[in-house]
Every structure is written in C-alpha cells, then in structure tokens.
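Justification of resources, computational component.

The compute hours requested in this renewal are based largely on the per-chain cost of generating structure records like the one below. Each record pairs the submitted sequence with a full structure-token output. That output is archived, and it is also reused by downstream analysis tasks.
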Amino acid sequence: MLKASIDLGTNTCLMLMAEVESGHVNRVLGDYARIVRLGEGVDKARCLQPDAIERTLMCLDEYRQIISKAGILPADVVCVATSQARDAENGEEFFLQVEAESDFRFRVISGQDEARLSFLGSLLPDMESSNHAVVDIGGGSTEFVTAKEDRSIDLGSVRFTERYLKSDPVIDEEFSICLNEIDNKLEELMDWRSSILSDMQMLAVAGTATTLASWHLGQEVFNANEIEKVQLTDEDLRRMVECLKLMTIAERREQVGIEPKRADVLLAGAMIMWRTMEKLNFHICNISTRGLRYGVLMDL
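The structure output for this chain reads:
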C-alpha cells in the first residue's frame, strides 16, 4: 500500500513516500527534507512565530502537491509533530489552520512516543535492535532509545543555539557556558547509560548527525548510502566542534557537505553529539539517514 509520512520538527519538515506492507517500508518513492525552523523563538516566547508559520505552510503546500501527483490521498498521510508543538501555546491553533489549508491532520506526539518511533525507524538493515542505542538529536529535544528503555530531554540544536550561542563567531564564554549546560543535561542520562550494555553501539539519526557525516566525507551531493557506512569517533566530533567554533556562520555555509540553512545551529548540534559520546561512553558512532518518518509508517 502506498503511504506517506510527514515529520514536522523544530528545525526540519521531512516527508517520506513509500510502499508499506505488514510493518515494513518495502520501497521508497520519495524522501524530502526542508528546513523550515518552525521552532524559531519558541524556547523564549512559548509561541510559534508568524514567519516560521509562513515558512512551514509553504513547505506543507509543496508536499501536498507532490503527494497529490503521486496519487496518495490525505487520509493515507501520517503526520506527526514533535518538540516545538509540545512547547508552543498556539500549537493547536496552528494545526487547525494546517488542516483547513492542506487536509493534513497532525498528531502531536510525546517525547516517549517520539523516542520509540525514532528507534523503530532508524535501525539499518541487518542491525540487531538489542545491540544499538539510537540518539536522535533534534532542534528542541534529543531522544535516547534502546529496545527496552527510552528517554527524551530538552536538549536541542535550535534551543541551545538561541539560549547560549548568540555571537558570530561564538565567543569563548558562550561556548563554555553552552558546553557546561549540555553536560548538566546529560547527567540526567547516567542511570540510563548504566542500565544498558557497556558495549552498546551508538546510532545517531537526524540532521545534525547526517550533516556532520556529509561534511566528514566532503559530499558535494548528499548520498545516504555512503553516509550510512560512516563511523565517527569521539575524537572526530571533538575536532569538528573545534573547527565549527572558529568559523563564522557564513564560513560554515561555504563548507562542502554542510547544508547552508543548518549552518547557524550546527555547532550546538555537534556539541551535543560530541558530549553525548564523551559523557555516556560511546567511542564510535554509526549514522542513519532514516528515523521518525520511517517509524510512523512501520507502526501502522
């Protein structure tokens, strides 16, 4: 059966079109990503901002047209929203507007559901679920998931950029404060880490991880197959953080492999990924280009 899923996050809006049967995504017909930054300003104002709403509505209209041309009905599109929608006071009003304009009916999922579905959708072929811990670094929150336990904390690339990394380039004081706050949030995960196997492998998903892998490979054109062969070490992440810290946002945009619209929040995302590896004792990280948009279709 032909289905589609839309994953509307704090930073990105992703859409997957695929043939789905008995909980398996058999064939991908289209996989789309747009940076809409719906969560811009939400951490401070607790409301979705007009410019962010307009960007997102334009993206959803584009997706509506793509889905229509593929012959998929709005009723066959599974739409989920995550951290920014949980935090925004006007989220319900926004999604009523979305439904009126596009017929897309969004479900705002909890951090726990986001973790479970991200884990389900992120595992690559031949990966054993019992051997992997999925870390999904989002714009507003990060999910830490194994087959038996999951956590979600308010630690995200957009949220921490807006809170702490306000200079361009980032000054040492801002960087130090941000790093300390990341480490403090990760303290909440120490019992989670001690409850899983010491040799559990980390699998990172979402835009921060795939962008850093693309930059590591020097990809001029995004290639998911190559990215999913990458293994990054904690030392790789430390070097990336040091390089990004010294660059202006404009200089980051010029780097081969870095999506220009992600350049402003990539340092915070890289810091979260690096400190996760250091604090939680993961020395090697695999990368998945899949995630929540796969998981919601597999969960049908």
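The chain has two domains: 2-108, 124-293. Residues 214 and 223 are 8 Å apart (CA to CA).
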